[in-house]
Amino acid sequence: MAEKSSKTARGTVACDNTTVQLLKANDFVAEAIRKEMASRGILLLNITSSAGSGKTTLLQETGKRLKDRLNIKILVGDLETERDAERLREVGIEALQIVTGGICHLEAQMILQALQNIELKDTDLLIIENVGNLVCPASFDLGEDYRITLLASTEGDDKPKKYPRMFFTSDLLLISKSDLLPHLPFSVEAAIKDAQEVNPEIEAFSVSSLNGEGIDRWCSWLLEKLEQKKKAFAERQRASA
After folding, report:
1. For residue 174, what are the β-bridge partners?
2. Distance CA 110, CA 106 (A)
3. Separation of first and last alpha carbons in the chain
4. Which of 234, 160, 237, 149 is nearest to 194 (CA)?
5. What is the largest CA-CA distance in the chain?
6. Domains and CATH numbers, the chain
7. Which residues contact 115 (CB under 8 A, 6 or more apart)?
8. 101-136: string of b/e by CB count within 10 Å (b at 16+)?
């Protein structure tokens, strides 16, 4: 049997502690974004999930229900194409696609660059639809107020313990595609139990963008968080007057 090569692949270089430095730099930019959103009273959400869990469809339904009440803008991350942004524009939501060109997550500096290409004046709600991936996006703060993770019924209920960092860093878990639950061996109770063992503070409920289950609750959650953000903004304005 031939010996396994111990050589590194051509074109690679060994680096020490680069991840730590990169994340520190990312956090610095994320904090700048967070302060900018606070100064404008804009609620910033980071929506994460595996690929195909229904993020864009959920945001389409959100837009249909809330676009006449709120000024909503969405930044959409994908490796290629503008298809998701086009779907959101079809329902009347201003959406800007961030094409990562193969990078499996969004980083704060990508969001900062994208913000230079949208009009933030009078914006109430800014949503980031992250690249579909339960691993890499978990490590990158984007300056969001809240991180929401979708777990589709088609994925299996074991994901919170298999990908704990994503659920540990999330504020809300949405069990998506709940209309398929009667046909799948997926336990909502088991998924939520595992998620809350990873993160006791995480909220969780089921949604279906097809039959509407949980969508009113989701929209109410959004409006409640936005009201809290606007109230804090108004209090800062009064204090500085």
Report:
1. 150, 205
2. 6
3. 78
4. 160
5. 78
6. 42-240 (3.40.50.300)
7. 33, 36
8. eeeebbbbbbbbebbeeeeeeebbbbbbbbbbbbeb
Residue 76 · residue 84 · CB < 8 Å: yes
Q: pLDDT tens digits, the chain, 241 residues: what are they?
A: 444 333 333 333 333 444 556 778 889 999 999 999 999 999 999 999 999 999 999 999 999 999 999 999 999 988 778 899 999 999 999 999 988 777 788 999 999 999 999 999 999 999 999 998 999 899 999 999 999 999 999 999 999 999 999 999 999 999 999 999 999 999 999 999 999 999 999 999 999 999 999 999 999 999 999 999 999 999 988 888 7
Q: Is 207 left (phi over 0), alpha (psi -120 to 50) or beta?
A: beta
Model confidence pTM above 0.90: no
